[in-house]
Specification:
single chain, about 20% helix, 2 domains, 9 strands, Rossmann fold, three-stranded antiparallel sheet, alpha/beta, Spo0b-associated Gtp-binding Protein, Chain: A, elongated, six-stranded mixed sheet, about 260 residues
Length: about 260
């Protein structure tokens, strides 16, 4: 703002300071962690700090008995606050699983997202967001770095990005049946499940489908049959696909469209 001037002129009004943030930004108090605002709509606003109040010049003290007052009241400074801004992606579907489970290959197959893909763990270092077209409609898919045992205690890097799938409606839990570290897919599922719930018990309520990946690499079809039977006994919905060849991908997409759109 500006000071008042002669000839009974008021001071200039201060300019609003606007900080533009991506949709999905959460505003928190850095000390208490309290969520002050969840900006999930385009154009949504949050007043973080009020500006100062203008003072009163001598003109405001003019009266019938005091025609030329020499009195004024200074203005008050505006508020100052420290805030934490945390971005959570807005996605309909979240891809979860161990490193190198085929998440990046799948999202690049079904959307225009182009994540780095390589045949080694932790290729994905940052969250990826892809838009899947379904006729005139679409839905979004988020891919986060793979989770390993002990992730909720800081192991690996995937747990740092779990906030990006907190808003998703469906989890696709990808399991590589050729994973040498977890030849038993059920143990692989349980490990990821443990890490998810350690991060947020709310994840227990989320719809989760299991997707067996890289089936083009299986030399014995009985491996897939055994896995499907084991997970069916647990009443878990499963899909099997190869994101490289495209086999089984359309079936998964049709199920997602029916569930989401």
């Amino acid at each position: 703002g500006g000071h008042g001037q002669g000839a009974n002129r008021y001071g200039r009004t201060g300019r609003d300071e606007v900080v533009r943030v991506p949709v999905g930004t959460v505003v928190k108090d850095p000390e208490s962690g309290e969520v002050l605002a969840d900006l999930i709509e385009p154009g949504q606003r949050y007043l973080a700090a009020k500006g100062g109040r203008g003072g009163r010049g001598n003109l405001s003290y003019v009266s019938s008995v005091n025609r030329a007052p020499r009195q004024s009241t200074p203005g008050k400074a505006g508020e100052e606050r420290e805030l934490t801004l945390e971005l959570k992606l807005l996605a309909d579907v979240g891809l979860i699983g161990r490193p190198n489970a085929g998440k990046s290959t799948l999202i690049s197959r079904i959307s225009a997202a182009k994540p780095k893909i390589a045949d080694y763990p932790f290729t994905t270092l940052t969250p990826q967001l892809g838009v899947v077209k379904a006729g005139l409609k679409s839905f979004t898919v988020a891919d986060i770095p793979g989770l390993i045992e002990g992730a909720h205690e800081g192991a690996g890097m995937g747990v740092k990005f779990l906030r990006h799938i907190e808003r998703t409606r469906v989890f696709l839990h990808l399991i590589d049946l050729s994973d040498p570290e977890y030849p038993d897919p059920w143990k692989s599922y349980q490990m990821i499940d443990k890490e998810l719930l350690a991060y947020s018990p709310e994840f227990k309520k989320r719809l989760r489908w299991v997707v067996f990946t890289k089936i083009d690499l299986l030399s014995d079809p009985k491996v897939l049959q055994k896995a499907e039977k084991a997970f069916a006994a647990k009443k878990l919905k499963t899909f099997a696909l190869s994101a490289v060849t495209g086999k089984g991908v359309d079936k998964l997409l049709r199920a997602l469209e029916k569930e989401i759109l």
